[in-house]
Write a structure and sequence with these properties.
Blueprint: E1 7-15, E2 36-38, E3 47-52, E4 58-65, E5 75-78, H1 79-85, E6 93-101, H2 109-119
């Protein structure tokens, strides 16, 4: 894969067991063992290379859900992605993301708000 130029930084968390088997914002079934992630505004299907800034481990994920909706977190990783990054035990990590393959779709405010309401009470707190 060819890396794009766009990079951003933030705090990542992960989600898994409670949501496993439920529908994501894209309508697909969430699989905590797949390399996917939730982001509030990136287009669905966007591929990101996420690097854990604490240990330099990286993983490529595909955006297929909306969130996270807790604290200052900007991305929610699947359990498998968190495991690849070595963050499954810590729960929250600082990360760097590089957009590899953006998909030209923009998340509407309605989509973000509806997803936030759906996940509001089920967010995992660390």
């Amino acid at each position: 894969m060819t890396e794009g130029q766009e990079r951003f930084y933030g705090t990542a968390s992960w989600y898994g067991p409670y949501f496993h088997g439920r529908r994501t914002a894209t309508g697909e079934i969430f699989n905590q063992n797949a390399l996917t992630a939730a982001h509030k505004t990136l287009p669905f299907g966007t591929q990101l290379k996420i690097t854990n800034r604490l240990n330099d481990r990286s993983v490529v994920v595909r955006i297929n859900d909306r969130g996270p909706y807790i604290g200052q977190r900007s991305i929610d990783l699947s359990r498998a992605a968190a495991r690849c990054l070595g963050s499954e035990g810590t729960g929250v990590i600082p990360y760097e993301a590089v957009i590899l393959h953006p998909i030209p779709e923009v998340a509407s405010e309605e989509t973000v708000e509806a997803s936030a309401r759906r996940h509001n009470l089920q967010a995992r707190r660390w």
